[in-house]
Amino acid sequence: MRNQLIVSGQLTGGLFGRVYFAEGELDNSGTTVTAYSDGDVSLSFGPMRITLTAEAAAELSKHINRAAEAAGGGQ
User: Fold this and answer.
1) Residues 6+ apart with CB under 8 A from 55
2) Residue closest to 56 by CA, chosen among 70, 35, 73
3) pLDDT tens, 45-72?
4) Residue 18 pLDDT class (50, 70, 90 cuts)
5) Contact predicate 54/39, CB 8 Å
6) DSSP state, 23?
7) C-alpha to C-alpha distance for 64 and 2, rounded to whole angstroms
8) 65 to each of 11, 13, 38, 47, 59, how far by Cα in Å?
9) Overall pTM > 0.85
10) β-strand 4-7 against 18-26: which pairing, if any?
11) Which residues of 29-55 are buried (b: 16+ CB within 10 A; e: fewer)?
12) In what order do the strands lie in the sheet with 18-26?
């Protein structure tokens, strides 16, 4: 399904300290969202990957949601 990420089970300090992992496709590009036990959050979208602190990721998420709402696509 297009534009859907699915959580891949419950992780508790799993592989490489992953505590959250979701994967799928957004706009036809392979995408993953990963949280690590050290407090980092990683987003991979196609060939791009960014890693942020949990605090920075939360701030970015807030503004992405606001931008999506302003563009008519938010929840």
Assistant:
1) none
2) 35
3) 999 999 999 999 999 999 999 999 999 9
4) confident
5) yes
6) E
7) 19
8) 26, 28, 25, 23, 10
9) no
10) antiparallel
11) eebebbbbeeeebbbbeeeeeeebeee
12) 4-7, 18-26, 29-36, 40-45, 48-53
